[in-house]
Structures are given as C-alpha cells and as structure tokens.
Design goal:
single chain, 49% helix, elongated
C-alpha cells in the first residue's frame, strides 16, 4: 500500500487542529482511523508528517541502473539467467547477482524470460501400465 501524500497528511493535521474529531476526519479524507491517530500522535510529539522509509532491502540493480540492465538483456536474447548474471557482474563492476535476482529484475523492467527456441520441447509420454490386464 502506498503512503499518504504529504499534502493529505498536512490537511488531516490541519483538520485535527481545527477541532474536528478523529473519526470525522478519517471519514472526510477516506483514510483509516488508525492513520489519523498515528498522524495526530506524530504532530503531538513534534515529529515530521513525512512518510517514513519503506521497509525492505534495496534492490541490487538500482533504479538508475535498470536502463543499462535492460540494454544488456536485450543485446543477447539467447542468454541463460546465469550467463546474464555473469555479464552484469562484469559490466557493473563486481556486483554478483543470483538467478532469482536476475529474474525479478527482468520482471521489474517488463521482460519475460522464456526458454530458447532452439531447446527441445518437453513432451509428456504416456505411462506404461504396471501390470498387464487380462
């Protein structure tokens, strides 16, 4: 879920300072009551109303590097994930990426990873019966 904009946070704080109840402010701005309570507590303690940093680890391929990664991936469409990870490591200067990270990054930039057309198709063979029927 995206954070509330700073403008909306300020309007909520202003409405609370004007004397409106937390429940009416939550209904007026279509936010949860707990969000209004949290913003009121921040304002009361003198903290900034700006949203905090999102939790989670930062991606190994940064936002500004995604274009370079996209160009590398588009340059050779027959690469495996492992080969693409190795090529990125050499180009980016030592950042080792796992195959899962490469796959997530490809998905983030809009690439779909599929098997090469040269690889054989998998075929499902019918099973042989274990026992002969009479």
């Amino acid at each position: 879920m995206k954070a509330l904009s700073l403008d909306l946070r300020q309007r909520i704080a202003d409405a609370l300072e004007a004397g409106q109840s937390q429940a009416s402010v939550a209904q007026r701005f279509d936010v949860s009551l707990s969000s209004v309570e949290r913003l009121a507590r921040k304002k009361r303690h003198g903290h900034s109303l700006e949203p905090g940093k999102s939790p989670g680890k930062t991606p190994l391929v940064q936002q500004e590097q995604q274009h370079a990664f996209e160009q590398l991936a588009a340059s050779r469409t027959d690469w495996t994930l492992q080969r693409l990870a190795h090529a990125w490591q050499q180009q980016a200067g030592g950042k080792a990426l796992s195959q899962a990270t490469v796959l997530r990054t490809l998905g983030r930039i809009g690439f779909a990873y599929k098997k090469r057309a040269a690889s054989p198709k998998s075929v499902t063979q019918p099973n042989e019966p274990l026992f002969a029927t009479r």
